[in-house]
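Re: your question from the hallway

Yes, I did run it. Sequences:
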Amino acid sequence: EAGVAQSPRYKIIEKRQSVAFWCNPISGHATLYWYQQILGQGPKLLIQFQNNGVVDDSQLPKDRFSAERLKGVDSTLKIQPAKLEDSAVYLCASSSAGTSRNAGQFFGPGTRLTVL
Amino acid sequence: GENVEQHPSTLSVQEGDSAVIKCTYSDSASNYFPWYKQELGKRPQLIIDIRSNVGEKKDQRIAVTLNKTAKHFSLHITETQPEDSAVYFCASGGYQKVTFGIGTKLQVIP
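Structure:
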């Protein structure tokens, strides 16, 4: 089966600019996650969708980050304006997990963001 | 929220030896404990998971044990090989959501 797709793979921007990332999950996976992974650390959950609804966005810096998952499939994550500390790899993952079912997550290749 | 502690942060073993990585969690309601392997510059990949109704699970050279009373779980890799070198993340959670540990960098020395 096709894996999780993300684009772009790399992005370099200056601080205060805006940037957007795109994710296409594995077909049929209802749950979609966006993580931020800073070098040397574990993935930190930013936002989680179940279909097109938000399940958890408690760690999303809402003053600058936004995300949407229209139609419950593809998702976009936006940062506006970017700060130096946003430099990280942004990972998208999807899962067949549901409200009463555990399942592992499948990760995309990530987008490496560098903010100068 | 859930807090996951993982140790050691780095681990070096000789090829052929065993490696053990340990994690503790805080939320007694957690019922799902996956482990991910992340090679340098690549995405995390699920290597094994265990649910709270099971105490141990094995898949070839890797095994995971869970002690719900003590709220800790461990990853065991036997007969380590150079290709096992990577960062390993434990995670803990319930349905849908998991919290990741900080990772263990495993180096297998040929």
